[in-house]
Every structure is written in C-alpha cells, then in structure tokens.
C-alpha cells in the first residue's frame, strides 16, 4: 500500500493505482470525459488534470500513477479554469443540438458543460461538417458530435477485438470512424453496439424506430403485439430510474399494456422453443456425425461477426433462428391461425437489449411467415422513452402477467439473458431428454459468471459432453482460434457478442459497466430461481405448440419456420 495526500487528506491505495483511483477511493470527485473504467484509460481529453507538488505541468490523473508521499490538489482556481477552457474548446466544434439530441439528459459533455457553468463559447471558427452515417438499420454515426475521446475505438478494438473504428486524418480534420470514412454497412462490423455504450455523447447511437411503433399502435387495422427479451426484465427498471438489477417483469408488462399493445408476449416463450430445437439438433449431430462443436445462434452480433471473420465455422452454427425470430415466425402463422387474424395485419415489435437485433429482423431470410417476421426491434432505451412519452409512472404500476400462449415461459428461458444461460438451459433439457432421468441440480455453476471463456463437462450415457461459453467478441476470437489450431475440442459452444451476454447488450441503459452487468446477472438468476418451471421441455405452452402445430422438434414445420442459414 502507498500513502498520498489529496486535498490535505491522507489516502491509502494499492501500489499501481492511479491518482484518479485514489481520489475516487477517498470520495473526491475529479471530472473525466475520455476515461472509461476498464476500457479507455489514455489521458486524451485532459479534463481530469490535477496539480501534483513538484511537477512542472498539470498531470492527467487517470493515467498518472499515485506515488508514496505524493501531494495532490484536485480543486484549485487554476484547475477549474483549465478544465473550463478544455470544455469550451470542445464545445467550439460541437453542434448546438442539445435539445434535439438522442443523448439529451444523458450526455456526459452536456453534464460537464452544466457543471462548469458554461453559458457562452468564447471561441468561434470553423465547425466540422460531416454527413451522418445512416447506412445500417442498427447504428448511426454522427461524427459532428464526436469529441475524439476514443472510447468507441477501445470498445471496438480492445473489448470486442473487431477493429472497425479508427482515427482518420490529422489535426482539425481528425475524425473517428471506419478507415477512409467508409460506411459501417460496408465494414465487417458486428453491429453489437458496444461502441454506442462507450460513447459519452450522441456521436454513436441506435437507429430509433419509436415513431414506427407509435404509428402501428395508432392504426386501428393493426393487431400489434410485443415480445420482451429475457435480459430486459432486469434492466428496463434501470432505464426508468430504478436501481440496477431491479426485477420489473410485472411492471414492464403493465407498462407495455398501457402503451396500447394488443398482446404482451415474451421472447422467453421462444427461448424455450429454441432449446427444444437446438437441443435436438445437438443430439442429432452427436448421433449422426454432424458438424461439431455445435455453436449457438441466438446472438445476431455473434452470427454477423462469424460470417465476416470466421466463415470457416458457419457450418458449426446452429440452424435455429434466434428466439426473437422464432417468435415472429410463429406470431404470423400459429398465433395468426389461432386468432383468425390475417397475418398481414399483425405487427410484431420486439424489445431487445441489443442493436444487432434491428439488423437481424431486417435480414431478407427472416420472412418465412410470408411477411417480415418481426417488424420492428426497439432497444431498452427506446422503450423507456415511450413509457415516458406516455406519462407512465413505472413505480406505481401494478404487476401484471404476460398474455398466453406466447407469454408462457420457464426459468431456463430467463437465464438466456446472461452469459452461459443458453448453455445451462440446453443442458437442463438435453440431460433429461437423453437419460430420461430428473436432473437433481439444475444450476450449472461452471458456466455462470463473468470469466471470459468458461468450460464444463456433462456425463451423458456413453459420452462426456464438453462445453464452452464465451461472451464478448474478443473472448469469442480466443476460443475460435484455439479450435482452429486444434488446441481445444468441444461438443457444444455458446457465444454471445456482448460482454456479460445480453444483460450487457448494446441496447441496454447507459451506463452499462461491470457493476451494472453483475447486478443484472444476479437478478436474472433470481428470476430463474423463482419460476415455477425451470426446464424448457416442461413449458406447457411449448408442449401444446408441438402437439397442435409443429408436431416434433426438427420436423417439417420447424424447418420451414424456425431454422435458417448463414452467408459469408
Ligand atoms: Fe438475447 Fe436471445 S437471449 S439474444 O441475448 O437468445 O438481444 O435478452 O432476446 O432472440 O431469448 C438479446 C436477451 C434475446 C434472442 C432470447
Ligand atoms: Fe465495433 Fe461493435 Fe461498434 Fe461495430 S458495433 S463498430 S463491431 S463496437
């Protein structure tokens, strides 16, 4: 441990800590902007500068190591002036669109401008004039709002190891984006949205589809139904001002009903169905010498990443569509028939923790119902805005139930939202289907938690099944490289594009960080624990669906509606 003095206060920290960490530990606030804990630590913006006794210049506290006996001041007239000047310079090349900006109210630059009492900009000159990149259905890049903090670069290059975003040009002309200013659409981008979560301003954000949903809700000829992803019941509350990890399933259902949806259904229903299809696909490949390891297919960011970067593994990916898409295909066939509604009048909205889901639902092959299976996918941030627009007081809402039958689900489906959850759900079903025995312990602890790559093995009659789980594309890369080199061998692999799985998705509330991820994961396992049924194959609505419509897993109808293929 070392001891330093910050603002006349003695602070003890572990060796290797920075001045910023020491200050944070002592409860002393230092403003930051380019700094993003665990992700971007480079001292680029200089807003966190402090005075260190004996040093000739101001020191960026986020990158300067704390040292024994160091005497630091974080709050002097000179520092306040320096920080204000930095903000004024940043704002001198920033569009004044705060009122109409998607991040208004949740923008770090706006918050700092307010804190530093900036009422006018003393510097006037040339302003950047870039055309926004609206080329993908998921993410918009508005370079004019970029403050060159490089947080998105670190998220994309280090956290995800995809490497789409770079600094281009020099000096005033510098901009962050794909090389040569190409559009995201033409890049091997996963559309995971981790760069969006990292962005402190409105320079990177989801493509908003709220108005399209309002329009459908206002159309008397449309039967508008909504499905909610497993991970959002533990994060929508956060977007509505509650603590991270608040479980708000019942309130979320009530709020969606207040928005005017004709039916409030659950993607979890389709997650149970995915387990039935994917579990049987796994057993089929195992028995009949099919391509192994089988890899999960529900994360569209992971699928897109694989198509671009590891096409040699495409045959390994399960042919199962994601639960979002299985739900859509069934809504416009099975449900439409049951309700005697013309599928052309059914409008399916999904609420997802994800930006890649917007891309997934627009993929041309996702039309097996004869229509766009899912019409619009909204992020958690978007649906929270709809709740606010509708004047919904989330706190005082009663807890309501999902509608049947597409709203009935199990604990196995709930845990899809956390890394390892799809694998655990699959193992619960595969074990019981193969052995015919009741699984004594449903909790597969080895595949839980935030370790980058997790491994487990399960004994089935005649074979020990080896499984692995990776979350975040950097970890996926490590795992795939080990498979390629023959260093590792598995039978079944779960990969999710985002760190932590969907609870850390690019469409989740901002901030999403290690702490919020942990709280959401804990909540999701509590949801599972409290469910009456915790195995997908025991879901009565799924049993009925097979009896009435699909007949059997991997049957003709399933192939027609629930399975797909991938492209290089
Ligand atoms: Fe996910 Fe999935 S778990 S991909 O992370 O398989 O987005 O939550 O909805 O489709 O069910 C996301 C979450 C989600 C799908 C399911
Ligand atoms: Fe990189 Fe993901 Fe952003 Fe694409 S969406 S630029 S892959 S972080």
TrEMBL record:
Its cofactor is [4Fe-4S] cluster. GO terms for molecular function: 2 iron, 2 sulfur cluster binding; 4 iron, 4 sulfur cluster binding; ferredoxin hydrogenase activity; hydrogen dehydrogenase (NADP+) activity; iron ion binding; NADH dehydrogenase (ubiquinone) activity. Its EC number is 1.12.1.3. The keyword Metal-binding applies. GO terms for biological process: ATP synthesis coupled electron transport. Residues 137-167, 177-209 form the 4Fe-4S ferredoxin-type domain. Keywords: 2Fe-2S, 4Fe-4S, Iron, Iron-sulfur, Metal-binding, Oxidoreductase, Repeat. SUPFAM superfamilies: 2Fe-2S ferredoxin-like, 4Fe-4S ferredoxins, Fe-only hydrogenase. PANTHER family: NITRATE, FORMATE, IRON DEHYDROGENASE. This is NADP-reducing hydrogenase subunit HndD. It comes from Koleobacter methoxysyntrophicus.
């Amino acid at each position: 441990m070392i001891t330093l003095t910050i603002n006349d206060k003695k602070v003890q920290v572990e060796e290797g800590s920075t001045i910023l960490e020491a200050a944070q530990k002592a409860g002393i606030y230092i403003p930051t902007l380019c700094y993003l804990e665990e992700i971007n630590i480079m001292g680029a913006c200089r807003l966190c500068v402090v005075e260190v006794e004996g040093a000739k210049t101001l020191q960026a506290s986020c990158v300067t190591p704390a040292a024994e006996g160091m005497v630091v001041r974080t709050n002097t007239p000179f520092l306040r002036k320096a920080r204000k000047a930095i903000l004024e310079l940043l704002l001198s090349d920033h569009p004044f669109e705060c009122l109409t900006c998607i991040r208004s109210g949740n923008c770090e630059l706006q918050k700092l401008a307010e804190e530093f009492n900036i009422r006018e900009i003393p510097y006037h000159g040339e302003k950047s004039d870039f055309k926004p990149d609206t080329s993908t259905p998921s993410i918009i890049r508005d370079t004019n709002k970029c403050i060159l903090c490089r947080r998105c670069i670190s998220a994309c290059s280090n956290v995800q190891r995809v490497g789409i975003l770079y600094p281009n040009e020099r000096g005033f002309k510098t901009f962050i984006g794909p090389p040569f200013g190409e559009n995201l659409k033409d890049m091997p981008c996963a559309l995971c949205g981790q760069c969006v979560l990292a962005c402190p301003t409105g320079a990177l954000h989801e493509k908003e589809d709220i108005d399209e949903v309002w329009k459908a809700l206002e159309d008397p000829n449309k039967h508008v139904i909504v499905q909610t992803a497993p991970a959002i019941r533990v994060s929508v509350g956060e977007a509505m001002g509650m603590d991270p990890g608040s479980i708000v399933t019942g309130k979320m259902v009530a709020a969606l009903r207040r928005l005017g949806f004709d039916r409030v259904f659950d993607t979890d229903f389709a997650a149970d169905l995915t387990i039935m299809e994917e579990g049987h696909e796994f057993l089929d490949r195992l028995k009949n010498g099919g391509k192994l390891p089988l890899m999960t297919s529900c994360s569209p960011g992971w699928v897109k990443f694989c198509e671009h970067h590891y096409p040699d593994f495409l045959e390994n990916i399960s042919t199962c569509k994601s639960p979002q898409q299985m739900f859509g295909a069934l809504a416009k066939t099975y449900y439409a028939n049951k309700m005697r509604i013309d599928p052309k009048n059914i409008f399916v909205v999904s609420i997802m923790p994800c930006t890649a889901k917007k891309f997934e639902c627009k993929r041309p092959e996702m039309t097996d119902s004869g229509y766009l299976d899912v019409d619009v996918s909204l992020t958690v941030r978007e649906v929270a805005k709809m709740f606010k627009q509708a004047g919904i007081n989330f706190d005082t809402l009663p807890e309501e139930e999902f509608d049947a039958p597409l709203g009935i689900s199990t604990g196995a489906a709930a845990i899809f939202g956390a890394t390892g959850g799809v694998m655990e759900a699959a193992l619960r079903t595969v074990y019981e289907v193969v052995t015919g025995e009741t699984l004594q312990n449903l909790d597969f602890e080895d595949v839980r938690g935030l370790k980058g790559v997790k491994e487990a093995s399960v004994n089935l009659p005649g074979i020990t099944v080896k499984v692995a789980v990776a979350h975040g594309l950097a970890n996926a890369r490590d795992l795939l490289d080990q498979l390629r080199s023959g260093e590792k061998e598995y039978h079944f692999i779960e990969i999710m594009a985002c760190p932590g799985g969907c609870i850390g998705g690019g469409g989740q509330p901002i901030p999403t960080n290690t702490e919020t991820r942990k709280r959401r994961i804990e909540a999701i396992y509590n949801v599972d624990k409290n469910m009456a049924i915790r195995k997908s194959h025991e879901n009565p609505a799924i049993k009925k669906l097979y009896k009435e419509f699909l007949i059997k897993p991997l049957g003709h109808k399933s192939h027609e509606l629930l399975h797909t293929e991938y492209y290089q």
